[in-house]
């Protein structure tokens, strides 16, 4: 669902989907974080995403890093 929203360029709704996941007791996986990385368009959003990723205990991998770079270059 997040990826469909990101591909529509509805980035705010894509980011808010994570909150909905938590409300329903679901936990994000690495693929979820990779898709959420596609929501970052500004450097400050990227820094916030990395901070959130660290606070959740997730690690940065090549796929997430690649999604960040391509979304920032878009």
What is the structure about, briefly put?
With 74 residues, the chain is mostly helical. The chain has helices at 2-7, 11-23, 30-37, 43-55, 62-73.
**Would you count the extended β strands for me?**
0
C-alpha termini separation:
21 Å
Query: What characteristic shape results from the CA principal axes?
Result: globular
Order of helices and strands: HHHHH
Number of helices: 5
Main β-sheet: number of strands, strand sense, barrel status?
none
Description:
The protein is an all-alpha fold. 70% of the residues lie in helices and 0% in strands. It is globular and about 35 Å long.
Descriptive key words:
globular, mainly alpha, 74 residues
How does the SSE layout of this entry go?
Layout (H helix, E strand, L loop, with lengths): L1 H6 L3 H13 L6 H8 L5 H13 L6 H12 L1
Helix pairs in contact: 3-5
């Amino acid at each position: 669902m997040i990826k469909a929203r990101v591909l529509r360029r509805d980035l705010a709704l894509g980011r808010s989907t994570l909150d909905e996941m938590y409300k329903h007791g679901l936990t994000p996986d690495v693929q979820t974080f990779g898709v959420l990385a596609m929501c970052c368009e500004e450097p400050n959003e990227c820094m916030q995403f990395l901070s959130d990723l660290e606070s959740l205990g997730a690690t940065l991998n090549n796929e997430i890093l690649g999604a960040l770079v391509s979304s920032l270059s878009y």
